[in-house]
Amino acid sequence: MKSDIEIAREAKLEDIEEISEKLGILGEEFWPFGSYKGKISLKAVDRLKGEKDGKLILVTAVTPTKYGEGKTTTSIGLSMGINKIGKNSSVAIREPSLGPVFGLKGGAAGGGYSQVLPMEDINLHFTGDIHAVTTANNLLSAVVDNHLHFSNELGLDTRKIVWTRAMDMNDRSMRNITVGLGGKSQGYPREDNFIISAASEVMAILTISESLDNMKEKLGNILVGFNRNNEPAFARDFKICGAMATVLKEAIKPNIVQTIEHTPAFVHSGPFANISFGTNSVVSTKLALKLSDYVVTECGFGSDLGFEKFINLVSRFAGYKIHAVVIVATVRALKHQGGGKDMNALRVGLANLGKHIDNVKSLGFLPVVAINVFSDDKQAELDAIKTYSEEKGATAEMSEAFEKGGAGCIAFAEKVVAIADKSNGRFKRTYSLDDSVEEKIEKVAEHIYGADGVIYSWDAKKKMKLIKKMGLEKMPICIAKTPLSFSDNKKKFNVPTGWRLNINEINIAHGAGYLIPISGDIMLMPGLPRVPSAEGIDIDSSGHYITGLS
Prior knowledge:
Blueprint: H1 4-10, H2 16-23, E1 30-32, E2 38-40, H3 42-47, E3 55-61, H4 71-84, E4 89-93, H5 98-102, E5 110-111, E6 114-117, H6 119-123, H7 129-150, E7 156-161, E8 165-167, E9 177-179, E10 190-192, E11 194-196, H8 201-208, H9 212-220, E12 223-227, E13 232-234, H10 241-247, E14 255-259, E15 264-267, H11 282-291, E16 294-298, H12 303-318, E17 324-329, H13 331-337, H14 343-362, E18 368-372, H15 379-391, E19 395-399, H16 401-404, H17 410-422, H18 437-449, E20 454-456, H19 458-469, E21 501-509, E22 514-519, E23 538-539, E24 546-547
Parallel strand pairs: 3-16, 3-17, 4-15, 4-16, 8-11, 17-18, 18-19, 20-21
Antiparallel strand pairs: 1-2, 2-14, 5-6, 6-14, 7-12, 9-10, 12-13, 14-15, 21-22, 23-24
């Protein structure tokens, strides 16, 4: 089979203005970026507010291997499959980050005959949204250090500055740094660090903001640090929020592209699900729901990460109804969870799928298991997953989107639509906002992860006292955790038992409106692998022919 980039290059795309027009976007609401990508004005969101919402279909997955299990490919294929059966669907997914593109996982635009296009642009700089997030983040950092250099009128304690710099790249050497070296004219020396842009609170704020004014208010509420009297200092204290919002004025507008079969695709915002909440922007998804009868959106990694956060955090902000949930499973992932490569390992690893099914069912959904078919899968293996899923009370169907596009998802799409059509969109949540911070963490750890309890470090306990003092206990939580295990240890496969979740620290995303308990050895700045994907990416002398992207 041809490579992803070869398939993408041979695809015949429609002009994106025609796609947006057919979708119902007016000419004055559309801003083209060339022929095949564009942005939609927030005026369209305002105009369509009174229209009826379509059905929202949420796609999650089993615990993945480090290569991913084709959740984006499946989401795109499902949306195309829904259109194949005569319904009206669009897909809404998050933007790829350059860190994984040049690192290990590669791009995030689908694969094979189930892609969003133009994949080279989407996987690289796209419409500049992530660059804008990085710039706004670092503008605040620069202004904070400038404030320290000239006066420090706010009396900031340089040991208690919590705002960090950001970059859209995996670079472990930037995790802990010292700034301001070189003498008096170079600034005030202090310790600092970098996080990847996808983990920036600015990215989270962009994702959940629904207007410029709403975004500006959230930016102003960002917690920068504390003064010598241990009183908080916020971004608004530095008179910088207007400039930050100006940098983000185009980034907040949803991006529209198309799938390989011309299905409208909203690709907007890009928070990771292991260290943030991993979903498409609220404004983009809400716009898609006004324009389509069925919207397929994905949440990062498994039910223990993106799905849990979508239910307990994102949907609280957005007010979503959710009409169907899909769990993507692969033979490869379940064998990995079972500790081998044979049929017996698959049978053992099915317990991992079972836990994800239980998680989804516990929150009020009847899940559809999408078995993402790889070319070397054996029929007996696929049948085993299907039979097990049905025994667990889920619906199951094969997804062959990678090799067949929408045509490979017709039976799958019919089952998802049947469930969505019967649903009223209501669901349960894991915790109440009135629960204490400890109760929220423990309910997620025990009910979603399967932990026996939680161990808090001294730093985490100290931070909980501060959170209570600041009156922030009613905020939802967004636990940062490895995606490779239900536990906080990536080497514990399948469904670990007899363990407790380690919470080492709790960060306060005051502007975005949630708390971030940090578990295990999770890093907010990933590193590159020994052989990064960047080594295989190249471009020819014409500047048009790119190789190595996937």
